[in-house]
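Exercise 7.
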Amino acid sequence: MSVTLTQTNRRWAALGVLAAAVLLLSIDGTVLALAVPSLTESLSPTAEQIIWIGDIYSLALAGLLALMGNLADRFGRKRILLAGSVLFGLVSLLAAFATTAEQLIAARLLLGVAGATLMPSTLSLIRNLFPDAAERTRAIAVWSAAFGAGSAAGPMVGGFLLEHFWWGSVFLINVPVMVVVVISGLWLLPESRDPNPGRFDVASAALSMLAVVPIVYSITHLATGSFSPLIIVGVIAGVLFVRRQRRLADPMLDVDLFRSPAFSGAVAANVISIFALVGLLFFFSQYLQFARGFSPLQAGLAELPATLASIVVIALVGWAMTQLGRGRAIAASLAVAAAGLALVAPAAGQSSYVWLALCLIPVGLGVGLAMTLAGDAIVSAAPPHKAGSVSAVTETANELGVVLGIAVLGSMLTALYRSNLELPASAPAEATDSLGSALQVLDPGLAQVAKDAFVSAMQTTSLVAAGFTVVAAVVAWRLIPAR
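Solution. The predicted structure, written as tokens, is:
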């Protein structure tokens, strides 16, 4: 009995290591936005360089996930995870002490490479650490809570650091966490790999990157109102990648999994869950700071109800699976999230923040539960020796949801803000760019007009996000089986 207890404790301690890694990665994805004004003063980047400082991390991360998942299956998930952790810590030092914009862009590129080694390895190690289905579902709930909590905590952490330290501190916090991950991971994490990985296909690796990077790049630039023809390159490469995988004896990714309605439905539910959550947080943070006048730290704290609700999922996921089954539980979770998003619209016009806080609870709870169950469905679809490759599907879906949420909902918010804004002809043109720009150039009376236009745009965008989430709930109900 004592041996079994020790093994159980060791598994859950190992999960803590993996959760710490994904928590830091998700914080790193959102913490930089607040530091842009500060680093602009220090490094004097051009407008194009500012865009690349933000974009290059997501492009490298998304483009390499499938490749790194395959390499983890081949060479060992623990080995790839720990090597990526060391690289992430070292490159964070380079980013923190960068003296030029070019150095920071290069460091962000390498952070994306390191992040791509970490994310599939965390989820695939969970697949092998927890062979029991019920335990694995709870473990993925912890993993999902860490991912969601990190995304929400990024602005809060960044706000605190920027109020007390220089802009490089948002990268420097990575170092001690990665040291803990490496030291504890060497002791706690088991090694696992595919015993018969087959021949590595260089063409598949190249096509996977050519498919993902141009599409992600094109989506991120939707917010600027420009269409990039690179998306055509991504679609063509994606078609060639799928055709090649079907011909290979040892494919990088078993694309036939997408023939299963349960698998493809779970992937779609995952994308839309992240799409809704990140889209909400993107414009909600602006709303709190610009329309309500919160500081970055206060805005981060104000988003805590969604974070705390997503953590409660850990206790509810087993009950939801038992009572409803996977498909119906995902559908019900998305319906709850949609209700929360719809309620944000009227609550945003109230003077009291309490109503908004209450609306964030069903959003965090619903998205967290849907992410957990959809991720569990995706990971459980693969045999343990292919866990890295299929885990990369979950991570790519998460990353696609992030860029879609910011690009689509962000573009919609901007367009609605401009259409709602009624200013005299003498008002500065910069006021139409964003609410942040308007507050810098308008007098108090006109600034209130801009705030009202933004709040109205946010209310409509929140309702649209709720509508997308309802569609995802219907997809989950129809495609994903209860058992």
